[in-house]
Design brief:
Helix content: 25-40%
Family: Belongs to the glycosyl hydrolase 13 family.
Organism: Streptomyces pseudovenezuelae
Number of helices: 16
Structural class: alpha/beta
Oligomer: single chain
Shape: globular
Strand order of the largest sheet: 8-7-3-2-1-10-9
Largest sheet: 7 strands, parallel
GO molecular function: hydrolase activity
Number of strands: 15
Keywords: Hydrolase
Radius of gyration: 23 Å
Protein name: Glycoside hydrolase family 13 protein
């Protein structure tokens, strides 16, 4: 264990004092297989998470979001779930989970777990039963099985495509096909089936009874599907791309963001509200803002991820508009906004924000991060500035593990070590998401930089040593200490959920006030600008002769 030079902030925290803690919380995402390895097998586990929870508490987080830890063959990094009410033996036991929750609560941290309701693993008992039972069986009705087209059923039932590439249909030995919007190892459930709905009600209660405080709902916009016969080809919808929701009438896509999905979440809300305090939920719904607001309504999940903000380039005008639109969307649902810069599915923002506009990120990853080469120092500066901007906004901030260390993407992973199913399923055309999932560096040295006693399931580059927790702990000006200071200040400053934009100022600058004089100024331009009057509370990078330099954010009191 690393000795701490700081301790958790003793001031009251949102996670223990307010039933609406989630509205403006800082939630730290843990990808458990890459966070900390307690047993030395190279794979992160729940005991490793528990041992490192003091890191989250010292950081100033309000909650831990735990990515899937369920039994899984890792066909999709744990999002292929074989049992929704157990722990993968490689990651621990239910007793280990209970111990983790107890320690988190002792430290004042809430616990949010990932729920993956659109699909199971193909190893799930239900799917194995469906395969054995054959066509026309009750067991197959829990999934989406169909006969194929063509003279002998040799063609897929529709032209629907998997998010990971290729057809969304896989044929089984008896000739029928099943739907998988993601990997073939992830067969889609049929949510019109009452047994499916009841089983997930049981799952919600199972984890809530164990002390879980909330749920992150994976692919929340995909559960309801139009499965009326004949199934519609997307090619039958002129001018509509496979994943384009905005070119269809709202709710009109055969399987994305259908209106019927909201009935499911209204049902869930009755369960979540039966607990004291009510359990929270946040939707991962890749839909336009007005449609996203529906998932965030108080009688549904209550909050939804804001991906427009994550996808906005480093441009003051674009970011300002994204912020305004996101706040409007949240208000429409009487919810709070959500802000996120990185997660387990995207290129880390310390790299992404410095890629030239229009860069093909997959081509960049395939080049090992060399074409184009990027300025890591500038990337870190932008990442730090983006963080202070995000943390000053009204709503919840979701922080992905390692971003508090300033970690860039590990773009140079050799092809032979890749684990993401996207790599194989696209015929080795898309490199996938492994570069943001490399296990964290805790120490400057050791076989896995402190991740565990042995190696790591994905190789860590030598340059990880300079980003390690040990290398930044207590070091003035380090990214880790910037996060700690910012989160400590945020707790003291944060009140209300409104902001007021300043009158027009220098081009390329975002300037807004929160309350009682707290102000955030972010300079996204290429020249230093004067700061407005006020006490400088924190800056993402040092001032330049009293001026706010490029790619720098300041908080003023």
């Amino acid at each position: 264990m690393i000795s701490r030079t700081t301790t958790p902030d003793p001031s009251p925290d949102l996670s223990s004092s307010d039933p609406n803690w989630w509205r403006q919380a800082v939630v730290y995402q843990v990808y458990p297989r890459s966070f900390a390895d307690a047993d030395g097998d190279g794979l992160g586990d729940l005991r490793g998470v528990t041992e490192r929870l003091t890191h989250l508490a010292a950081l100033g987080a309000d909650a831990l979001w735990l990515s899937p830890f369920y039994p899984s063959e890792l066909a999709d990094g744990g999002y292929d779930v074989a049992d929704y009410r157990d722990v993968d033996p490689r990651l621990g036991t239910l007793d280990d989970f209970d111990a983790m929750v107890a320690e988190a609560h002792r430290l004042g941290l809430k616990v949010i777990v990932d729920l993956v309701p659109n699909h199971t693993s193909h190893r799930h008992a239900w799917f194995q039963e469906a395969l054995a039972a054959g066509p026309g069986s009750a067991a197959r009705e829990r999934y989406v099985f169909r006969d194929g087209r063509g003279a002998h059923g040799e063609l897929p039932p529709t032209d629907w495509q998997s998010v990971f590439g290729g057809s969304a249909w896989r044929r089984v030995a008896d000739g029928q096909w099943y739907l998988h919007l993601f990997a073939p190892e992830q067969p889609d459930l049929d949510w019109s089936h009452e047994e499916v709905r009841e089983d997930f009600r049981t799952t919600l209660r199972f984890w809530s009874d164990r002390g879980v405080d909330g749920f992150r709902v994976d692919v929340a916009h995909a559960l309801a599907k139009d499965l009326t016969e004949p199934l519609r080809d997307l090619g039958d919808l002129p001018g509509v791309a496979e994943e384009a929701l905005d070119h269809l009438p709202p709710g009109g896509h055969p399987y994305w963001d259908r209106d019927e999905v909201h009935e499911i979440y209204r049902d869930w809300r009755t369960i979540l509200d039966s607990y004291t305090p009510p359990r929270t939920a946040v939707a991962e719904a890749w839909v336009p803002g007005p449609r996203r607001a529906l998932y965030a309504r108080a009688d549904e999940l209550g909050q939804a991820f804001n991906f427009e903000y994550l996808q906005t380039p480093w441009d003051a005008g674009a970011l300002g508009q994204a912020i305004a639109d996101s706040l409007d969307t949240a208000r429409a649902a009487h919810a709070s906004a959500t802000w996120v810069l990185s997660n387990h599915d995207v290129v880390r923002h310390a790299s992404r924000l410095v890629l030239p506009p229009g860069t093909d990120e997959n081509a960049w990853l395939l080049s090992g991060g060399r074409a184009p080469g990027i300025d890591l120092a500038q990337g870190l500066g932008r990442a730090r500035a983006a963080t202070l901007l995000m943390l000053a906004l009204p709503g919840s901030s979701y922080v992905y593990q390692g971003e508090e260390l300033g970690l860039p993407e590990v773009a140079e992973l050799p092809f032979e070590v890749l684990q993401d199913p996207i790599w194989e399923q696209t015929g080795r055309v898309r490199k996938g998401r492994d570069g943001c999932r490399v296990p964290l560096p805790w120490t400057r040295s050791g076989p896995s930089y402190g991740f565990g006693a042995g190696g790591a399931w994905l190789p860590q580059p030598q340059w990880f040593a300079e980003y390690a927790v040990e290398a930044q702990d207590g070091v003035e000006g380090s990214t880790l200490e910037l996060y700690r200071t910012a989160l400590r200040l945020r707790r003291k400053l944060l009140q209300g959920e409104e902001l007021t934009w300043a009158d027009a100022g220098p081009a390329g600058v975002l300037d807004f006030a929160r309350h009682e004089g707290w102000r955030c100024v972010a300079n996204l331009s290429e020249t230093a600008v004067p700061l407005p009057a006020g006490e400088v509370l924190l800056t993402s990078s040092p001032l330049q002769d009293g001026l706010l330099g490029p790619d720098t954010t300041a908080w003023l009191g």
